[in-house]
C-alpha cells in the first residue's frame, strides 16, 4: 500500500468519524451552534460522511476520488474561513486547514496535476 492510499484511507475514516459524531455527540451540535450554523449542521455532517465514503470507494472508482477529494477540500476551506470569521485561534483552526491541504493534495495527485 502506497502513501497516497494511506492518506486517502486516513482522510476517509476521519470524515466518516466526524460526520457520524455530529449525530451522536451534543458537543458537535454545540460547536455548530457556536459557529451560527445550526441550519446547515446536519447537511455538513452528511457531506462529511458522503465525502469520507467517496474517498474510500475512490480507491476503486477514480471518479469518486476526484469528486470527494475536491468536495471535502472545499468544505474544509469553508470550515477554516468560518473559524477565522468567529475568531478562533489558528491552533483550533489548524485541523480544517490541514484537511483542506490533504484533500487538495489527493485531488491533484488523482488528476495527475502533481
Describe this structure in words.
This protein has helices spanning 3-24, 26-35, 38-57, 62-85, 90-110. Helix 1 packs across helix 2 (26-35) and helix 1 packs across helix 5 (90-110). The protein has one domain. It has 114 residues and is mainly α.
In short:
Helix 1 packs across helix 5, helix 3 packs antiparallel against helix 4 and helix 4 runs antiparallel to helix 5. The protein is built from five helices and no strands.
User: What is the count of distinct domains?
Assistant: 1
Radius of gyration: 14 Å
Low-confidence stretches are: none
Order of helices and strands: HHHHH
Mean pLDDT score: 95
Structural class: mainly alpha
Strand runs, count: 0
Based on Cα principal axes, name the global outline. Answer: globular
Largest sheet: none
> Approximately how much beta-strand content do the residues carry?
under 5%
Proportion of residues in helical segments:
over 70%
Give the CA-CA distance, first to last residue.
19 Å
What count of helical segments does DSSP give? 5
Features:
globular; 114 residues; mainly alpha
Give the helices and strands, then pairings.
Elements: H1 3-24, H2 26-35, H3 38-57, H4 62-85, H5 90-110
Helix pairs in contact: 1-2, 1-3, 1-5, 3-4, 4-5
Amino acid at each position: 500500500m502506497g502513501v497516497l492510499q494511506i492518506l486517502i484511507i486516513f482522510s476517509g475514516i476521519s470524515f466518516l468519524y466526524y460526520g457520524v459524531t455530529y449525530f451522536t455527540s451534543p458537543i458537535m451540535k454545540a460547536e455548530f451552534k457556536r459557529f451560527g450554523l445550526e441550519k446547515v449542521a446536519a447537511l455538513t455532517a452528511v457531506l462529511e460522511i458522503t465525502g469520507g465514503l467517496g474517498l474510500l470507494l475512490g480507491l476503486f472508482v477514480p471518479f469518486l476520488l476526484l469528486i470527494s477529494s475536491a468536495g471535502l477540500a472545499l468544505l474544509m476551506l469553508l470550515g477554516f474561513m468560518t473559524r477565522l470569521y468567529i475568531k478562533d485561534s489558528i491552533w483550533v483552526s489548524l485541523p480544517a486547514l490541514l484537511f483542506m491541504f490533504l484533500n487538495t493534495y489527493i485531488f491533484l495527485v488523482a488528476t495527475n496535476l502533481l
